[in-house]
Design a protein that fits this description.
By secondary structure, this protein is an all-alpha fold. The chain has 2 domains: 30 residues; 214 residues, MetI-like (MetI-like fold), CATH 1.10.3720.10. Helices cover 81% and strands 0% of the residues.
Length: 261
């Protein structure tokens, strides 16, 4: 019985049920009609309606596309600077103030900045890039920096060049750090993309745009907004599940993983 109760899947299910119960109770206390804080029943009913509409999938596709562009661009820059920082400590400390700034600056400020500098539809891409960059950079730099020194010395004795040491020894050994950083920042980028779409006021395709449009079209109907948010939450749960699976598999390979701060 104790083993059943402590099973992580059982605990996850119990936590989900508890969250739904709390959600239902709050909806009863705040708004019985569901115009302000709709119940889970109203939200899921509206979700079923949205799931049969092509517009929902168009919005989801555009959100994922913009997020993917921002994430991949961020990874390319993080890989370049992460390799340099991981191999040259002086460069790592030189970039430290920039990384602290990027981690600390409010996301809203970045959105408004890129709205001015670029078109509103492109602003979310740049926001995702800057938010994910420090996470990916730290993962790559720390992964390279934590490669066993004896392995590096052995490669030098064998006559491996600087570039071969990086691409054939350091990066493969740093891969667990990089993968964890990628999975963690990928889930974050999805949330950031939706928020940026809402803040930019761009009313074309995207989940954030769909939420904004639903708010202006019928402000008294919050069930549609909650339903779109639920779609985002479900995707976040999928990303979180993938993250847990990746971490579990990497731990089985006896690598020491360091969580991104």
């Amino acid at each position: 019985m104790k083993r059943f109760i402590t099973n992580k899947f059982v605990l996850f299910a119990l936590g989900t049920i508890s969250l739904l119960v709390i959600w239902f109770l709050i909806s009863l206390l705040v708004d019985k009609n569901g115009s302000i804080f709709p119940s889970p029943v109203l939200t899921f009913n509206r979700l079923l309606v949205l799931l049969v509409e092509p517009y929902t999938y168009t919005c989801l596709l555009h959100t994922l596309l913009r997020m993917g562009i921002g994430f991949l661009s961020s990874f390319v820059f993080a890989l370049i600077f992460g390799i340099l920082a991981g191999n040259h400590p002086s460069f790592y400390y030189f970039l430290k103030p920039l990384m602290v700034t990027l981690k600390s600056v409010p996301t809203v400020a970045l959105v408004f900045l890129f709205i001015v500098l670029f078109a509103p539809k492109d602003a979310p891409i740049f926001v995702v890039m800057l938010i994910c960059f420090p996470i990916l950079y730290e993962a790559i730099a720390n992964g390279i920096n934590n490669v066993d020194r004896q392995t590096i010395q052995a490669s030098k004795i064998d006559g491996a060049s600087y570039l071969k040491t990086i691409f054939y020894i350091k990066l493969p050994l740093a891969l667990p750090y990089i993968i964890v950083g990628m999975v963690s920042s990928f889930a974050l980028s999805f949330k950031i993309e939706i928020m940026a779409e809402v803040l930019t006021g761009y009313t074309k395709n995207g989940l954030g745009s769909a939420i904004q449009y639903a708010r202006y079209e019928n402000p008294s109907d919050m069930s549609t907004i909650f339903a779109y948010a639920l779609i985002a939450i479900l995707f976040m749960l999928v990303f979180s599940l993938i993250e847990e699976i990746v971490k579990t598999q990497l731990k089985k390979t006896d690598f020491i993983l360091i969580e991104n701060e």
